[in-house]
Design goal:
Blueprint: H1 2-49, H2 55-96, H3 104-137, H4 144-151, H5 155-165, H6 179-190, H7 214-235, H8 239-284, H9 297-317
Length: about 325
């Protein structure tokens, strides 16, 4: 009886063990399957909820990046040019302090004065026009968006545009206008200039054509222009119009990138010549308040080099870039 009981217990224990192992194996499989189902569910949800890339919005983002790079270089160029004008003034003080300098120096500084004045006049034009644009855009008829864009424009933005592309980029001076004409001129700034200058004109102030010129780019800024472009897209009624708007954004992005390359080159040349002028100015300082005829040949040559470098630096101050035209279609 004892042996039978023990055998029965052993059988029960083995059965219990088998059941436990089976339960563990089944549980593991269930957990693994549950994990697989969870991962599959997450993938499905992600696929369903992930927003499909919008070519138009991608194009706007590309434009914003290009604009930001161009604007940063434009501001840097303005800074280098302002520093150049200060340095040129110091050079002139040094040269004027030296008696009996060559007559050629006078002719050189006449040209230097012309180039320097051209740059400073462009800055003054931009300051006056910016203030006039602010007053006009905030007046009746300009619209909240336009008024806010012009009012918030940093002076450096207007200055670098006017000194890089020339005051003609703004069309007729807003500061010479009044009333409706001034308001329309302010709106035209957002349209990339006047119709005669190839811009969108006042009618384009709140439309996609606001992307058309450097003045409009800088006044509105990348963020606002993106908002205008996206708002315009919502109003488009058919696929053809959508495609045309997309092409317009891409064309303007290409223009901005082209301008960025030109500004970068001018910035590099301006920085290089200014740094060279600063070195030659430092080397020539011992000649301050001396007599040119009493200087050594080496010191005289230093002054000649100093004046030549000053001419080269001033010439870059008056260098202007031409706005790149819209060349039509862009490869999709």
């Amino acid at each position: 009886m004892t042996n039978a009981t023990e055998k029965a217990r052993e059988s029960l224990n083995r059965a219990a063990g088998d059941i436990a192992r089976l339960a563990r194996t089944t549980s593991t499989r269930v957990v693994d399957q549950a994990g697989d189902l969870k991962e599959a569910a997450v993938d499905t949800v992600e696929k369903l909820t992930t927003k499909k890339s919008d070519p138009y919005e991608d194009a706007i983002a590309d434009y914003n990046d290009a604009f930001t790079l161009m604007n940063d270089k434009g501001i840097a160029l303005l800074g280098q040019r302002d520093r150049s004008t200060d340095l040129i003034a110091f050079v002139e003080l040094l040269v004027n302090s030296v008696a009996n300098t060559p007559k050629t120096f006078e002719a050189d500084f006449e040209k230097i004065h012309v180039d320097k004045a051209d740059f400073l006049d462009a800055e003054e034009f931009a300051r006056n026009d910016l203030e006039a644009a602010r007053r006009s855009a905030l007046g009746t008829g300009a619209g909240l968006t336009t008024g806010a864009a012009v009012a918030s424009l940093a002076p450096t933005a207007a200055l670098w545009v006017a000194t890089t592309f020339g005051t003609a980029s703004t069309g007729t001076a807003i500061s010479t206008l009044s009333g409706v004409a001034a308001t329309n001129a302010a709106l035209a700034w957002l349209g990339g200039g006047t119709l005669a200058a190839g811009g969108g004109g006042a009618a384009a102030g709140g439309a996609l054509l606001a992307l058309a010129g450097p003045v409009g780019w800088t006044i509105a800024g990348a963020g606002l222009l993106a908002s205008i472009a996206l708002l315009t897209k919502k109003k488009l009624e058919n696929r053809e119009a959508h495609q045309e708007a997309l092409s317009a954004v891409k064309r303007n992005t290409a223009i901005v990138k082209g301008m960025d390359a030109e500004i970068s080159d001018l910035l590099e040349r301006t920085t290089s010549i200014r740094q060279m002028l600063a070195r030659t100015y430092g080397e020539a300082l011992p000649a301050f308040a001396t007599d040119y005829l009493a200087l050594s040949a080496e010191q005289q040559q230093q002054l000649v080099v100093l004046v030549n470098n000053t001419r080269a630096c001033a010439a870059l101050l008056s260098t202007r870039l031409e706005e790149q035209p819209d060349e039509g279609s862009v490869d999709e």
